[in-house]
Amino acid sequence: MKKLPTLTQAPADQQAIELHHFAGSSATFGAVALQTALCRAEAAALRLDQNAFKTELATLPALWQATMDEITSRRRAA
User: Fold this and answer.
1) The model's pTM
2) Which of 6, 8, 23, 74 allows an S-S link to 38, with CB 3.0 to 4.6 Å?
3) pLDDT tens digits, one per residue of 27-65
């Protein structure tokens, strides 16, 4: 998530690579909503659709926070 602010400045292929890696990590943890948004952002980067790319990026902080909250709550329950 720390790379998101600078990701918009990167070339589209680098954007797609970073998002693909993050989506894969999200999938490993079962963060389906986060993974889905990351995949949409990756697809937008590959299409060179900067409007869709920025729209998807804007959804990520809230999804990241919700994911972390869920992981934390489950960790406490274990």
Assistant:
1) 0.86
2) 23
3) 998 999 999 999 999 999 999 999 999 999 999 999 999
CB atoms within 10 A of CB 19: 27
10 DSSP assignment: S
Tokens encoding 18: 């970073």
In terms of C-beta distances under 8 Å and separation of at least 24 residues, what long-range contacts does 56-64 make, across chains too? 57/4, 57/7, 57/8, 60/1, 60/4, 60/34, 61/1, 61/4, 63/31, 63/33, 63/34, 63/37, 64/1, 64/34
Contact call for residues 1 and 59 (beta carbons, < 8 A): no
Distances (CA, A) of 51 to 37, 40, 43: 14, 12, 12
Tokens of residue 17, six digits:
């690579």
